[in-house]
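Illustration: ZYBA0S04-08042g1_1.
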Amino acid sequence: MQSSKVLNLMLPKRATPRVGSLIKPSSFRAVRPFYTKNSGLRENSKDNTPVNPTSEEDLASRPDANATTSTDNYEYKRVVRDAADKGFKATWLNALAERKRQLAQGKVIDSYSYSHVNSTDVVDKTRKDSFAFVVLPFRDDPIVADFYVNAAGRLRMGQLFQDLDSLASKIAYKHTSPVEPMIVTASVDRIYLLQNLNSIADVNVILSGSVIYTGRSSMEISISARALRRDLPKEITEENLLDDDLFMTASFTFVARNPETHKSMAINRLLPLNEKEWMDFRRAESRMAAKKLKAVSMDLEKNPPTKSESAIIHQLWAASKELAQVHNKPSNVLFMKDTNKKSTMFMQPQYRNRHSYMIFGGYLMRQTFELAYCCAASFSHAFPRFVSLDSLTFNTPVPVGTILDMDATVVYTEHLHVPNSKPKIAALTDAAIDGNTIFHFQPTPINQLSLHKGDFLSKPGTLIQVKVDTSVQEFASEDSRKSGSFIYSFYAPRDMDEKHIGKPGYATVVPESYSEMIEYIQGRRRAIETANYAKSLKELHIA
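Result:
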């Protein structure tokens, strides 16, 4: 395997990008000119000839990439540049013209580039066949880090989510090749942060993953993120990546469809080769079965809350009645409806996925995360730390040229504090309530303070769960349809002393209506699942 070639980002003023050095994302997001270091192409160590980062030998022949745009460049080259010989390019204007032509013939196409079935043969493939990685050289290249840093100097997670979805898509197509079905993201089952990255300038990040489970037409892809406080290895394989460097895990489910019949399409089978791969396969198989069972048995729209959950609902109702009578409410206790943040966007073609007519899932993850972060930050009066994406299901795709409405609300909070101490709220002047009354309804925390300083739950604070509901409206209709729900969890450490309790500090959300209370209970159930997931992860690789 070739050594990884790290790309440097440069944004020259009014520069005209060279065709050989421009990297076009498969998601067709706004293109940023990417060049190798020193504004030139890196040379081959053998004969000192310049390496073209868009060459077939450099990118397509090896299962790796250097940055997300480098990963995407393979798809750009295959879909657009190579396709030029066939008389078409996957530009939006061409895709738009083709769709109109097909509609005139009474046909509906879902994908511009994946419109025909090349083969239906199904073969066995290994995890190594689909393994791919992305290098983000924050430590080695401050310009790269500048594109991924947030206002607090930490990693901008929304930007990383785009990379994760793009890499997962590449892994999916590597597994299904040479067949080219239409592959779409069905769900993001979880993205979980194991350790904090306090400063991205100190580390190089490697995202890597492979297919770990296949059904007939679906596959689960596991991606890990590692932070290296040392030089990057010359070769990156699944075997030489260390669990000690692991700071985040992600799990994606993709499904394959026949582009001609629009029905599910059989994909290559996964063949585990050792005990670890078999264990991962069986665990993924169990998760798939449990997810289907939970969708039926744990649906609060069809099944009532448990006895203990009903008791919590009664406490919530009593607390909301009590808080409603307070004239000067504490700044860190809010009714659920008052935490709401909204955003509306028009879906432009520059953010379409490789199929041309729908919006890239990673872009939706980024936008919903940014809104969820605003919601959590406004609620907690702090810079919240991302903990996990608890669940994400794409119910319906988001077409290019539609209006996307996003609606974010804090649906669950949980206080983590030192044992035998009570969290407090800001001082109240109203005699109807004292400093601790509002916390009487707080159920027993699911999570506990960690003894490891690097963990995000090592400090007292508030776990905040934000739900972002999305809906899509097409111009031809006044109605909007639900697209999906994105659930993000954040942690706001209580960094201030007792004189500044609540700014930031312990924050509390209080539901009022029965619907809001059901949202709270669902949030608590998700918090339990996330806590159990974190425990199993630590037992597997990090304890």
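Reading the tokens back as a structure: The CA atoms of residues 115 and 259 lie 5 Å apart.
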